[in-house]
Fold these 2 entries.
Entry 1:
Amino acid sequence: MIKYKDNIPIDIIILLGVLAALTPMALDMYLPALPIIAIDLKTSTTQAQFSVQAYLLGYAMGQFICGPLSDSYGRRPVLLGGLTVFTIITLTIFTTDSSFVFNSLRLLQGISGAAASIITLTLVKDIFKREKFARTMSLISLIMLGAPVVSPIIGSHVSAWFGWRYIFTTLSGIAFAALIFVIVRLPETHAKEMRQPFEFLKVHQNYLTVIKNKTAFCYMLSNAFALSGVFCFLTSGSIVLAKVYKLTQQQVGYMLGVNVLFSFAFTFSNSQLVCKVGSLKLLKIGLPVQLSSCIAMNIFNFGNIFGLWGLILTVGLYIGINTSNYSNALACALHELPENIVGTAAAFSGVLCFAVSPLVGGLLALFPVDSTKPMVVGMLLCSVASLLVFSAASPKGKVVI
């Protein structure tokens, strides 16, 4: 087992960034091709949209399993197994010819993809406390944010040149390369003396420990609602842009990339500020900013102000600030819990986020996609819920630095 004192080597940071990016790539790379996938699989656009929810549901299930397993058997074995299955399942999607099989494989892809995300979090938490954890996760996010910038663009062009199925061939190749690098370079960070036997009763007790900690639970639930707002856009955004604003696949890809420019700016700022200001104080600023972006988004939309760019810029602000809010809220939550259940705690946070998000996204998918109004109202409601839950995380006036 290896511990780092102050900084993780840059090649490990890059690797963790790629691992963290697998799920954004699995979600973003094929979004511009959703309308074409629906036609090719002879199904409705709404049914094709549910492939997003299928992945997220699997992702939640996978975290629920992978977190406790990593607490018992270490981080590396769980990561290697997850990456191997993810690579195989993603390649298999190339052969699908029905929406049922496509969505089923997306579910399995989400389950296996969860290992990469959960191990990234737990590995960093094994090494660092709250503020340095948030800073390191911000640095990893800077690498990861390249995925949402590049993925929609790559996906739209691969789909246009070779067909949508080759999007998943590309993703499988990336996952395989990450698997090889993990085998060669990534150390184990979870000490054997910190591991617990994998027993269902013990896992159940650990999850109860997380749930009963009101402060940690509220931070996690606040994150879940805020992330649900992001997935309101992921569920409907590409289709709305194509149908309402008449954008081509390539143009939709570029518009989705704008979100990551905001995310990069906020994540970089957070990495520079969090050790000086504190993750909790930054969160108390970030959540009201996120709500303000939603209020402006709804005013612009219902008032027909600024058109496409009014929507793109306010959505970008929401998604951008959410990247730093997410790291800070997770740092605060994990700080409240015992170190020997970090994997379980991180898994519960992920399960909460990616159980609530598909539910909200699924409800949104029931509304017509010939208007932006259901999407922007959904994002506003999610932001309000996030701020209200966060306000209940600790007694009034209590500030932890």
Entry 2:
Amino acid sequence: MIVYQKIMHLRGLPRRRIFLSIFFLLTLIPVLVSAQSQEDRIRSQALFNEGNSLMEKGDHQQAVQKYTEAISLTPKEHLPYLNRGVAYLSLSKMSEAMADADNAISLIGDKPSETAKLHAGLGYQIKGTIFQNSGDLKQAIDCFSKAIELVPANANFINSRGNIRQINKDYENARIDYLKAVELAPQNALFRTNLGVVLFRLNELESSLEQHSRALELNPNSESAHYSMANTLAAMKKYDEALEAYNKAISIKPKAEFFHARGRLHFSRNNFELSIEDNTRSIELNPAYSVAYADRATANSRLGKFKLAIPDARKAIETSGDSSAMRYGLAYFLYMDGQFSAALTEASKVVQSEPNWKAAYTLRSNIYAKLGNTAKMREDRAIAAKITDSGTPENIPFIFNMTVNVPEAEDN
């Protein structure tokens, strides 16, 4: 039996980028029950092999067709269901992938062989990935744990569970899983990259850098390892080395998140024009990338170009499904552009959604001052003075946290 590894990028925020290895099977379909003819079995095997070849080429839709034809000839054989499930997963057809994984697991049953356990484990890995994509992390962990129970020494299943634990911010247990995966498969660059990412999350930057370096020794053309290493180097304030690593990742495979991350590095070095260029490229590659709009807006604001920042801030809100921090940025940009009535509307929405956010009241008090509403200005300042936590409600960088800078007006 041969397995073919398919690397899939997990959905989610780029800064939590982790990687999943899914396998589809290149193997012979075993002799089937007598109800199937020898001719059907041979034809099913040929279709199965054709599907595998198409999967290797990345033609998932045609692979689905071939597996479906194989299933029609040998409906009691689990292997075409498993591979079609992986193909459906690649096409983001989650309900179809789930049905195929369930069918495969049911057909395998309680067969005691190690091969049967591996195949069932692959079925649970497909299910776990689907639950992960739907946000049901508990079910995802349960599925991957079931796969590990069936095949305790399978590094791919352990790595997959580590991915879910990292998404769930359970970094310590994610580290344990990734360490075990690396122990079982020390030459796997993917597992070392994921270990490096979680060590970055744990602020163990030197160890993170070591794992990324090892990953790149194993696979020098891994854009993901270069990208993750760049993030670690940037956190260590080794900006020149970080820039070189981002450049390398982009040269291998230009991706929206890579340009965005390099744009943030440029921003941190006050290279606002370069930051704008990279975020523009990021948006071209992914027009729904809300943080790229937000960061480009912020970079333009640092150059005093508030009229350019405003539409980007609006687009960031539109593509993020609303965000108090991004709406706060929009209110700030409108305020700085002298659009005080519009700024008041946006700031009031932020206060309504985040009633314990000090910066929102401070900003609105300044807007009221500009509009000449002294009573409302004093009311917001009094509320702000009672709030001790001035932190933003979301983990988004570069957000403005205004201090009171408008003198109090006298009551009329």
